[in-house]
Amino acid sequence: MVRRVIVGDMPKIELHRHLEGGIRPATAWKLAQTQNIDLGFADYLSFETAALVREPIGGLDKVIGAMALTRKILASAAAIEEVAYECVQDAKADAVKLFELRFAPALLAKVSGLDYPEILEAVSRGAARACAENTGKVGEGKGARNAESAAKGLPAIEVGLICSLRRTSPQPVNAAIVKAMLEAKSRNLPVPLVGVDLSDNEWTADPETFAGLFDSLREAGFGTTAHSGLNTSAEHLWRTIKLLKPRRIGHGILALRDPALVDEIRRRDIHLEVSVLSNWITEAVPSIQGHPLPRLLQAGLSVGINSDDPGLFGSGLSGEYELLGRVFGLSGEDFTAINLNALGSSFLPKETRDKVRKAYFTVPEAEDRREKAQGPGKAGALNQGSAE
Fold first, then answer.
1. Residue 20: DSSP 8-state
2. Which class for 66: exposed (0-12), middle (13-18), buried (19 or more C-beta within 10 A)?
3. Residue 256 DSSP code
4. pTM of the model
5. Cβ–Cβ under 8 Å, residues 86 and 21
6. What phi and psi values does residue 193 have, to the nearest 5 degrees?
7. Domains of the chain
8. Which 8-state DSSP code applies to residue 385?
9. Fewer C-beta within 10 Å: the chain N or C terminus?
10. What pLDDT digit, counting tens, does each position of 259-313 carry?
């Protein structure tokens, strides 16, 4: 078991966090006041109670609906930039060394009225501002962690951005977002766009609808990931993999229902972006204890740990680690192996990943599983996959 103080200081990699689910309730309240947005609550405590979802409330759609309450404040470029800034600051406070933040331009455009290039620029500016600072939000031990990064000659955090296409958006909207992404690639945003995601309820659209968009982005050098295999079936996950050819899968916990699918995910070296607390709150699993994380690791799959929507759930990545250490007995060695799997699966450039690995995740005899194409090794009691 890993104690909180150790977990808080442990270098981490996070690849799956939503900007819209990372809004601090206090920030939502403040920005609502400054933008004259009525959130429908007379005082902050009443709003905070409604804005936080700490336990199951009736499934994934209910949780997505709850997120709409705080999303109202993303009504301007300045508000979007501020939330992006705080998402990166919160990741820094959790000792995240490489961070990928995803956001849905269609949702932000609906709230703000901005066009897609303006949204991409606002998110990138906010993330860049946080990257440039040596401190994040106030937190015990965080100043020392950032000083450690500076001493190594590294930024406190490396960040890439992912645009989420939505299954429920009209296809012309998704096509316009892809066009904006392709155009942004030549504009040298201060924090780069590195990937595309497919999100929203998986029952609402067939992955074939998005295959062409994914192909065009992959050809342009973007990484690809998709939410799949969460509240649907193993067959949905099969179709996502065959049609979209993603390098990563958001959640993917239903893979264990089909041994052939597990073999295929392992063969393709697809990384699973797992969020245990989120999976319980959205009722994808009946309990934390019943989550298949240990079996995913024992199957030799590449798995990472993520907070998903920490502003909504009231728990950051260190809280997720503490929970997994307590419930599943994950050790420091297990967490290191998990982080190396995530690092090797990041969409950021190889030279960036190598810098982070050498500075924070030097493990004796650890091999880069993607670069050296070797079979799985052993790293930790539960992780039967290789270190990276």
1. T
2. buried
3. G
4. 0.89
5. no
6. -75, 125
7. 4-24+76-372 (3.20.20.140)
8. S
9. N
10. 999 999 999 999 999 999 999 999 999 999 999 999 999 999 999 999 999 999 9
Has residue 384 got a pLDDT over 60?
Answer: no
Q: Measure the CA–CA gap between 346 and 195, rounded to whole angstroms.
A: 10
Sheet with 96-103, strands from edge to edge, namely 12-18, 96-103, 158-166, 193-199, 223-228, 248-251, 271-274, 302-305
Nearest by Cα to 194 from 154, 226, 228, 225: 225
Cβ-based neighbour number of residue 103 at 10 Å = 27
Phi, psi for 65 (deg, rounded to 5): -65, -40
Single-letter amino acid code for the residue at 172? P
How far is 124 from 128, CA to CA, in rounded Å? 6
Which is nearest to 120 in space by CA: 51, 185, 63? 185
Q: 77-93 and 142-151 are packed helices; what angle lies between their axes, rounded to 10 degrees?
A: 90
Task: Please give the backbone phi and psi of residue 301, each rounded to the nearest 5 degrees, phi first.
Answer: -85, 155
**Cβ 100 vs Cβ 32: under 8 Å:** no
Contact 89, 158 (CB under 8 A): no
Cα distance between residue 223 and residue 326, in whole Å = 33
Tens of pLDDT, residue by residue over 237-261, are 999 999 999 999 999 999 999 999 9
Place of tokens 């690639």: 185
> Which tokens in the block code for residue 9?
């200081």
Q: Is a pLDDT exceeding 50 seen at residue 322?
A: yes
